[in-house]
Amino acid sequence: MTRFLSVFGLARRRPAVPLAVIASVAATAALLLGLASTAHGQAGVTREYFITAVEIKGSTTADNLGPPETNPKDLSKGYGFNAPGYDSSSPQKWEVASYMWTPAMMLAFRGDQVKLTTFVVNGDEHKVWVEGPDGEEALPETIINRGREYELSFAVPNAGVYKLICLNHEPTMTGYILTLPR
Description:
The protein is mainly beta. It has a domain at 56-98. It has helices at residues 2-7, 19-39, and strands at residues 46-61, 79-82, 93-102, 105-109, 112-120, 125-131, 137-145, 149-156, 160-166, 174-180.
């Protein structure tokens, strides 16, 4: 096999590019090619994505690492921070958090209908809306709550980037729907 690879200049002791990167690029290309194959000649299809509202948390103790000088909550509504002393059982513990959508990047074609089946894991309430590439409302503000699933549907009549925005936790909790021309 090494001889075969060396003929094509591919034999190396260490791969130049990690296999995870190659797999990621291949998966993205397959997704784009699959979407492109359904894009031409059709008047628009429904693109369904399953997304989740989550809060990612991390903690340590002031013994290991001092807390940030600037309160993360002052940087973004989507960040959370509990300073040392918030946990009486571990007074040196401090914690940071960030709200986000997962996945946060989706793809559609102009003329499609987008259906976001949305499940809320963290955050009791999220006020969300979708902003079109022109700044106009593509989906009116709606409230979604923890532990529930919602179907958010809207049309993407223009190419550009549509933004799924949580008003409670923006800018970190913003999802993007890249809409390509047909």
